[in-house]
């Protein structure tokens, strides 16, 4: 196999195709601390893209409850087990030496799904990417174990509320919203024998050419996140297309000037957990330094948003701010060794970071740049840090502005939300 460089695992790795990169890359950040599992994003996607015959079990967007939920069921635990069996005891990270550009999380010493594929020989030859085909039963329950918690140990009888104290809750669960990660090195693309899957050079969105697909389901098998799905009525595979009309700025209402807009799942989010964008890619495949791009700032500058299972080797372009109350070992397995630093920053964000966090779901157009106008100090609060200590956070009522592709201001928001009181002589329910 050719060798490609994966900055998320900090090294060269094997991949079925030669290294090639788009000019811009579709990417997003989900803040798991805010997700309430309402499934509004799920239904927005469903009602837009997968409401036809043969798509009944297709959920391009889903929200699953961790640690027990998953769609399809057990998608991550099954693959993690397969990788451990292929490389026993060696699926580990070395976070001692880091480089902010080429190995921000250190180096993953284990095997990726592409490097472990030859450990599972089959009559038709080895897989291009280690994977499996879920059973029909595993696809049938998109919300199984919803809101089901796990418990490390039972609290003492006289310990009221002892299970929900920071820095880690004894009883916990969290919601994990998922769409296709539009990976830099997609498992679906590497597995397709028909070359029916490709990344668009203009935005890195991963698509399936329906005229070439023959429904072999190799993409379903090879995608570690199981976001390529088979449609029996057409006998082809389908997947998230990143709401291309919106990305291309073709919605006249949302984008009157033709500026790219966020996807349906992003703009419908009630909990304001989502921020989507396009990041510029250098010739060497690394992200161009754009510290005033909200996504670059959160992912590469501050490293508060982390990739989902980076050890799979696909270099996913979906990133998550990990939940601060969850067991750290579990989170490290899911998001890599950057978890502790991310949670520390989120627990007590500094002035600039707090301002950028206000941009989540504050607009519908994609933001390419932000700027901050400093405001007055409005308060101080005591914050419990991950190590159990307390820290004083200073709050400033700064104003943050977001700009679209054409550098037009499309959002202006303050850290302190304004209060509006309705006139009592007009509204009977005024306070």
Short description:
The chain is an alpha+beta fold. It contains 11 helices and 21 strands.
Characterise this structure.
This protein has helices at about 40-50, 75-85, 135-140, 185-190, 220, 245, 265, 295-300, 330-335, 340-345, 350-355, and strands at about 5, 10-15, 25-30, 60-65, 95, 105-110, 150, 170, 175-180, 195-200, 205-210, 230, 235-240, 275-280, 305, 320, 370-375, 375-385, 390-395, 400-405, 410-415. With about 425 residues, it is of the alpha+beta class. The chain has 2 domains: about 5-345, Alpha-Beta Plaits, CATH 3.30.70; about 350-415, no CATH class. β20 (about 400-405) and β21 (about 410-415) form a beta hairpin. The mean pLDDT is about 95.
Strand elements, count: 21
Which outline best applies? globular
Numbering strands along the chain, what is their spatial order in the largest sheet?
A: 14-3-16-15
- What separation lies between the terminal Cα atoms? 68 Å
Main sheet makeup: 4 strands, mixed
Which stretches are low in confidence, meaning pLDDT under 50 for 5 or more residues running?
Answer: none
Please give the CATH architecture of the largest domain. Answer: 2-Layer Sandwich
Residue-averaged pLDDT, rounded? Answer: 94
**Could you tell me the strand content as a percent range?**
15-25%
Determine the CATH topology of the largest domain.
Alpha-Beta Plaits
Tally of individual domains: 2
Helical residues, percent: 10-25%
CATH top level assignment of the largest domain: Alpha Beta
Coarse structural class? alpha+beta
Number of alpha- plus pi-helical segments = 11
């Amino acid at each position: 196999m050719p060798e490609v460089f994966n900055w998320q695992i900090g090294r060269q790795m094997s991949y079925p195709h030669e290294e090639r990169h788009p000019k811009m890359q579709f990417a997003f950040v989900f803040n798991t601390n805010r997700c309430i599992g309402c499934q509004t994003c799920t239904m927005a996607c469903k009602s837009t893209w997968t409401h036809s015959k043969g798509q009944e079990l297709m959920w391009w967007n889903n929200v699953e409850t961790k640690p027990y939920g998953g769609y399809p069921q057990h998608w991550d635990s099954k693959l993690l087990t397969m990788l451990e069996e292929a490389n026993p005891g060696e699926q580990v990270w070395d976070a001692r030496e880091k480089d902010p550009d080429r190995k921000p999380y250190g180096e993953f010493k284990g095997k990726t799904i592409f490097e472990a594929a030859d450990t599972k020989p089959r009559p038709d030859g080895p897989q291009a990417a280690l994977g499996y085909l879920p059973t029909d039963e595993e696809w049938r329950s998109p919300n199984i174990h919803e809101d089901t918690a796990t418990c490390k140990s039972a609290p003492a009888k006289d310990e009221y509320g002892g299970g929900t104290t920071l820095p880690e809750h004894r009883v916990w669960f969290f919601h994990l919203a998922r769409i296709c990660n539009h990976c830099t090195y997609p498992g679906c693309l590497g597995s397709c024998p028909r070359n029916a899957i490709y990344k668009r050079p203009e935005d890195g969105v991963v698509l399936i050419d329906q005229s070439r697909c023959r429904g072999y389901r190799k993409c379903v098998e090879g995608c570690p996140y199981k976001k390529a799905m088979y449609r029996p009525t057409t006998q082809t595979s389908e997947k998230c297309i990143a709401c291309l009309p919106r990305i291309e700025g073709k919605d006249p209402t949302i984008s009157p000037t033709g500026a790219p807009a966020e996807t349906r799942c992003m703009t419908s989010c009630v909990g304001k957990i989502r921020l989507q964008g396009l990041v510029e890619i250098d010739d060497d495949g690394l992200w161009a330094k754009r510290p005033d791009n909200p996504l670059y700032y959160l992912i590469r500058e501050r490293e508060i948003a982390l990739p989902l299972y980076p050890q799979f080797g696909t270099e996913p372009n979906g990133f998550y701010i990990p939940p601060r109350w969850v067991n750290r070992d579990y989170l490290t397995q899911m998001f890599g060794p950057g978890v502790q630093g991310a949670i520390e920053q989120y627990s007590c964000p500094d002035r600039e970071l707090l301002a950028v966090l206000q941009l989540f779901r504050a607009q519908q157009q994609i933001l390419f740049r932000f700027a901050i106008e400093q405001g007055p100090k409005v308060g101080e609060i005591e914050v419990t840090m991950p190590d159990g200590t307390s820290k004083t956070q200073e709050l400033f009522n700064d104003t943050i502005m977001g700009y679209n592709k054409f550098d037009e201001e499309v959002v202006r928001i303050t850290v302190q939300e304004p209060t509006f009181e309705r006139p009592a002589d007009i509204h009977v329910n005024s306070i």
